[in-house]
TrEMBL record:
<comment type="similarity">
    <text>Belongs to the MAGUK family.</text>
</comment>
<feature type="domain" description="SH3">
    <location>
        <begin position="5"/>
        <end position="75"/>
    </location>
</feature>
<protein>
    <submittedName>
        <fullName>MAGUK p55 subfamily member 3-like</fullName>
    </submittedName>
</protein>
<keyword id="KW-0728">SH3 domain</keyword>
<feature type="domain" description="Guanylate kinase-like">
    <location>
        <begin position="142"/>
        <end position="316"/>
    </location>
</feature>
């Protein structure tokens, strides 16, 4: 029987609650799951209902889940006429329903969050992503570690600390800047110092994974900077705006995405006096809604020391253990 076992695994990109699903042929036969769960698809014989097991609970019987095709069709018809911002909030409110939300590819360019959904073909439906087990081989390039976070998570500090403890294994990608070099700085160490003309041309040619302006100077991290860290066989850590995630999700980089969230106790969140905390909480929620499906691991940051320890242990496991990655990365 083992031989016949299905090798198809899917990462669920939406929550599913059969008991709230009016379309299912049998609510009791449904398999509930949450976004991020890995499902072993036992049968795709039926076009509408797959049979699947959750990998986490190994001996559980298979249950019915909506097929990818069916789920996509449902998304198209149920939210086609709803404005973008409502789709997000709808999908959030009805997280129990069989409804995933969609994001326009244009999102990653516009940082304002005002996405356009005019072009149907430019739309991605968050249903399932086929995944496979992947373990880094000794001679292979380390995976890229991408840290994203909400306001107040102070990710750069975290990243710098972990690298300083172990500079032979971990490194940052050296950014480009147009600001003048200071006397103690060395070209290619703190930054690559370039003229505005060169920077602009590089930006035009999509050489940066992200860039921004600070005190009238431009700063940006290039794809080459990541490659050059990896060429030294070190693990490269970057912290980026989540918009950059889609561009980084390639077989070359095999990014492992860590979402750093500050821990804000419920009791403090409620007190309106603490506006900063409220804003931090909202910003984390927003990132979670829009990009949560691309996140491999959430790191709740209580204080810097414990967050560093946790990050260190994640990085160590990353080189040793097996992880689920999109099938296209493991070919
Ligand atoms: P400084 O000029 O003091 O070295 O850096 C000033 C600021 O530039 C830093 O606080 C940091 O926020 C920003 N910065 C440094 N590197 C990058 C980068 O690669 N991308 C962006 N967007 N900002 C950067």
């Amino acid at each position: 029987d083992k031989l016949k076992e299905s090798k198809v695994y899917m990462r669920a990109l939406f929550d599913y609650t059969p008991l709230e699903d009016k379309a299912t042929p049998c609510q009791e036969a449904g398999l509930p799951f949450k976004r991020g769960d890995i499902l072993q698809v036992v049968s795709q014989d039926d076009q509408t209902w797959w049979q699947a097991k959750r990998v986490a609970d190994c001996n559980l019987r298979a249950g019915l889940v909506p097929s990818k095709q069916f789920q996509e069709r449902w998304d198209k018809t149920s939210i086609k006429h709803t404005p973008y911002y409502l789709k997000i909030s709808l999908s959030n409110k009805c997280s129990g329903l069989r409804r995933s939300f969609r994001l326009s590819r244009k999102d990653r360019r516009g940082s304002s969050g005002e996405a356009s959904v005019s072009d149907q073909n430019d739309t991605e439906f968050l249903t399932y992503e086929e995944v496979t087990r992947y373990q880094q081989k000794p001679n292979e390039r380390p995976r890229l570690v991408v840290l994203i976070g909400s306001l107040g998570a102070r990710i750069n500090e975290l990243k710098q600390k972990v690298i300083a403890e172990n500079p032979h294994r971990y490194a940052v990608a050296v950014p480009h800047t147009t600001r003048p070099k200071k006397s103690h700085e060395k070209e290619g160490v703190e930054y690559h110092f370039v003229t505005k003309q060169v920077f602009d041309a590089d930006a035009q040619n999509d050489k940066f994974i992200e860039y921004g302006e600070y005190k009238e100077n431009l700063y940006g991290t290039s794809i080459e900077a990541i490659r050059s860290v990896q060429a030294k066989n070190k693990m490269c850590l970057v912290d980026v705006q989540p918009e950059a995630l889609k561009a980084l999700r390639t077989a070359e980089f095999k990014p492992y995405v860590i979402f750093v969230k500050p821990r804000i106790p419920e009791s403090r969140r409620r007190r309106s006096a603490e506006e900063d905390l409220q804003e931090m909480h909202l910003s984390a929620q927003q990132t979670d809604q829009q990009y949560g499906h691309l996140v491999d691991r959430v790191l709740i940051k209580e204080d810097t020391a414990s967050a560093c320890a946790e990050l260190r242990s994640i990085l160590e496991r990353l080189e040793r253990e097996t992880f689920w990655v999109p099938v296209s990365w493991a070919k």
